[in-house]
Amino acid sequence: MNKVILMGRLTRDPEVRYSQGEQATAVARYTMAVDRRGRNQENSADFIQCVAFGKAAEFAERYLHKGTKIVLTGRIQTGSYTNKDGQRVYTTDIVAEDQEFAESKNAESGNAGGYNAQPAPAPQSGNDGFMPAGDDSELPFV
Hints:
Layout: E1 4-10, E2 15-18, E3 26-36, E4 44-53, H1 55-63, E5 69-82, E6 88-101, H2 105-108
């Protein structure tokens, strides 16, 4: 089974190209920064190359941009080619099968829900650590 699930942020806007021929297919390439967490490591990230085809590529072109946090489901695909210098270059890409937003637009932009959020007032508590419930006559089930 070849299944990958990643959550991270795009490091740049997707680069989208269209294949040649009668039925041009969109191909989107982008890089995701995925947090790496370990016991003795400080926060670091892996930068993972991703590619999307067809409708998934069109979605990436339309909605994804640098900084967008997404959850990607796909598969690993390896390949190789010979560069200009005649050296063999090996590649590893994640082929996106599903891309979903991992946070709202407002959270991404640092906007608190589209309004100026005021901090909630500190609760008044009694000596026992609980807030007073108020008048029981207002409760519909008493």
